[in-house]
Description:
The complex is a heterodimer. Chain A is an alpha+beta fold. Chain A is built from 15 helices and 22 strands. Chain A has helices at 2-22, 28-34, 60-65, 116-129, 160-164, 181-184, 228-237, 286-294, 298-305, 336-345, 376-390, 402-411, 430-437, 455-464, 470-486, and strands at residues 40-44, 73-75, 81-83, 86-91, 97-102, 139-145, 148-153, 192-197, 201-206, 219-223, 242-244, 260-266, 269-275, 310-312, 358-359, 362-363, 365-370, 394-399, 416-422, 490-503, 506-507, 524-525. In chain A, strand 15 (358-359) and strand 16 form a beta hairpin. In chain A, helix 8 packs antiparallel against helix 10 (336-345), helix 13 (430-437) packs antiparallel against helix 14 and helix 14 runs antiparallel to helix 15 (470-486). The longest helix of chain A has 21 residues, at 2-22. Chain B is an all-alpha fold. Chain B is elongated, with a radius of gyration of 22 Å. Chain B has eleven helices and no strands. Classes of the chains: A alpha+beta, B mainly alpha. The A-B interface holds A 228-229, 247, 249-250, 252-253, 297, 300-301, 304-305, 375, 378-379, 382-383, 385-387, 389, 397, 399 and B 40-42, 44-45, 47-48, 61-63, 217, 221-223, 235-241.
Amino acid sequence: MQKKIKFAAMATMIMMLVLSLTACGGGKDDSSKKGASKDTLKFGVTNFADNLEPTDNYFGWVLVRYGLGECLVKFDEKMNATPWLAESWKISDDKTTWTFKIKDKAKFSNGNDVSAEAVKNSIERVFAKSNRAKTFFEYENIKADGKILTIKTKTVCPGLPGMLADPLFLVIDSSVTDRDYAKQGPICTGPYMVKSFTKAKSVMVANPNYWDGAVPFKTVEIPSIDDPNTRAMALQSGEIDMAVNIAAGDMPLFSKKEKFNISEIASLRTVLARLNVAQGHILSDKRVRQALIACTDRDTYCKVLLKNTFIPGKAPIPPSLDYGFDQLQDSTPYNIENAKKLLAEAGWKDTDGDGILDKDGKPLTLDFVYYSGRSELPLFAEATQADAKKVGINIKLKNVDYNVLDAMGQHGDYDLLISNIITANTGDPEIYMNWYWKTNVDGNNPQNGAGYSNTDYDELSRQLSQEFDVKKRRQIIIKMEQILMNDAAGLFFGYPKTNMVSSVAITGAEILPADYYWLTKDIKPAK
Amino acid sequence: MEKILIGLKTNRTFFIYSVLAFLLVVIAIFAPIIVSHDPLEAMMKDAFQEPSSQHLFGTDKLGRDCFSRVIYGARYSISGVLLLVAVVFSVGTALGVVSGYFGGKIDAIIMRISDLMISFPGTILAIAVAGIMGGSLINAVIALTAVSWTKYARLARSLVLKIKKRDFVDAAIVNGGTPIHILWQHITPNILPTVIITAATDIGSMMLELAGLSFLGFGSQPPTPEWGLMLNEGRQQLQTAPWLMVFPGLAIFITVVIFNLWGDSLRDVLDPRQDG
């Protein structure tokens, strides 16, 4: 009797094992059909926005990326300012008055006309609600007449069209007051409208009143898959039809041209660690900063660890923009001996034999703040930690949430703080060069939380703000870059390539250098 | 203790598993002698290499030798779990014995506290502890101790309640034994076998909890070579560099299985009961 029960139990178990194994494998035919039907697009992204209020934080980016909102001006693949909602623009002879002509057929998704008055109200709303707006430009007055918008700037502002292309200035119908902008988003002009929005997933529907042609999909589902590998696997399995920013390690998975399209471009971004140079911080000593930069093998990080999806860093501005990358002198190339020498000169010795340098009884310990939303940042942080140990610097890693990072940056709660920054968000790197390094006088430059200040640099920054001649601007910017490099004002790890990978069931998914444009009206089902 | 020594001699399975468990501890202790490379030394030009004669288990994302990291990981993982189980066992048993023997208000207080701690999900508490005190192996041990001692307290308490009524306890009281003497000399030795067996079989599951917390980022922090953390680091390269996950995963699997089987055979030695 016992034996029979035992045998029956074994047989049942074996059968169950076999049955469960049949569930694996054999998914090859279904998976590619799961995604893009002709009506629905599924798009996997990373989303940092908690809500859809465009003046909050950088959340306007999500509105433009998700095809909800549009600006007056758009950047093309060479970062030229091209018409979008504005048909054309010109500048007055005294260089302070800009006149924009809004396109006749431009309409909001609720059917209202995009008049110059609506654009004026939209811009004024941005200035009223966001403290970032004034870092772009300041205006004396804005006038609206039919479809003609006139902006008089307080000081000469050479790059105004490019500034209006920043998602902060997307055009909304501010006359709509019975809507919760944070949850449902404002009324805008883009091909898609919000059906539902949470940070984790958004559902868009086609805008029936879209002014610029047919909208290819009826519904777009946009899940936010922050973990880069999970996103890659979702694309692989067909759960989503397209994804942005696939990590370096996963790119080989999409090399089959019959199944996937890869759109990859050298971006305008720099991955840099801001260094806290304020009094009382170890990095206020320039030699320590130089030693820190000299001990990091950025070449290997980018070519080996990140599998060549990054260009090794030395200067603030990436080589994809023409600002003298090859001529700039790197005063702190990778050189361990030089790093050790600099630290010794600065008075750091290992008196207690624990492998970490110390001075006046305090060890050389630095706090390195990073976040994991972009896969390269923890890698750079850990690689720096490993390299710094070789010269006796102890780096403590602090992994924080992205939302906290910006505040920590502004308050200077760090020794090193790494982020991946777009350097030419207005087509020109002037704003980026000011953000972290122009002297912060009474809070007029809140992003410079590290306390960097250099009078020559500030003077060049002032000249740049008034210079219209493109060649002269280039020279000024190159000089500013050289000052930062000589001062070891930042640790520039590298410049990423950005990508968008889509299944062959869709066409038109192209990534541009300015990464505001993800879901566009050009993304259609493949025939 | 004598039972264990007798068991080693007579019970074949117990002997084998004890040897294996001992081997694991020896590997952990003598890790610096066994390994070929420094587990923290990052030779970044050699990153992501497949297993080869130079690097038995391949290299990880910063060019560190995986074999060395897995062997060194034994130190952190095994010492962490043994510490955890020892603390939980002592604290839980002590509280349970006190609670069961004295009864009354003390019993009520201790049991209500234990009810409170049982209702806490361990992972959430670990996240809270990591958030306040920072992530580290010690903090993970603290968090897990806070939720795990209750099992031993309840077990010890119920065993004490059974023994309390026996004659030899009454005899000891009549003979003038102080409570501490009775607890230490009479009660505890009788409940110890059962509680020890529970602790031994718990080593496996505690190891998984600890590795799980490190996997989520609330236990050991980089660059520590702890198995759970290595699993997390290898996860991002699962399809392109699978050796990063396979070897730490195997290490956890083998360790947990050995300790589980050892705990089981310990039960046979210390507390044999005949079933059907």
